[in-house]
Design brief:
Elements lengths: L7 E10 L2 E10 L6 E7 L7 H11 L4 E4 L16 H9 L1 H16 L4 E11 L1 H12 L4 E7 L17 E7 L7 H13 L4 E6 L12 E2 L4 E2 L2 H19 L4
Helix pairs in contact: 3-4
Length: 248
Amino acid sequence: MDAEHIALERTLVDYTDGTTTFEGYVARPAGLGPSAPCVLLAHEWSGLSEPIKRSADRLAALGYVCFAADVYGKGVRGDPMGDNSHLMEPMLADRALLRRRLLAGLDAAAAVPGVEPSRIAAVGYCFGGLCALDLARAAPPNLVAAVSIHGVLQPPQVTEQGQINASVLLLHGWEDPVAPPADVLAIAQELTDAGADWQLHAYGHARHAFTFAGANFPERGIIYDARADRRSWAAMKGFLAEALGVKA
């Protein structure tokens, strides 16, 4: 079942971190019962864009409340097909700030009516993959799983890394120039040292943004790969079902 064939309820939710207001997007299947598991979707570098909302709808159609979080601020949006470095770079330069905003988004997701606060997983693509991993690194007690899809893998070095309690799934294009093999080996060691339950699926010949239909910038190592897209979706589906205790 996908978002085109299931009735979804959609709402916008304002939440804050300090003096900054953020706008989350919530999608859920119509008639979904109480105490439902939740997937927190972390946006890529363009912010809470229409493509991210469509991704949230697709995840919600699997039977979850999907909360698409916002780390830039309400109304701060980039161009899904353009260069959004000016939005992302300040977050990469201050990973402590990014962590606070991610935790604020997690709190907002847990407070959505009908969400079971102890059954939340984080999913993210590209910059959002880094966000999902940084949430797992923060080790909030109600985060049970994190999925990074062609994500940035480098650690935040905010504090000494403690135990990571969330299960972690890395879905990685082996020829991704944003996450070269040295970064893959480094995060494997990081997750092992942190005692995490982790998996790595590496897709041969796939590059960065392999799930983004229409991506075709080979000079930057950004190319859509239908096979890796299909396989990564199936892997994520099964992983979330196991972690959140639902039927795949």
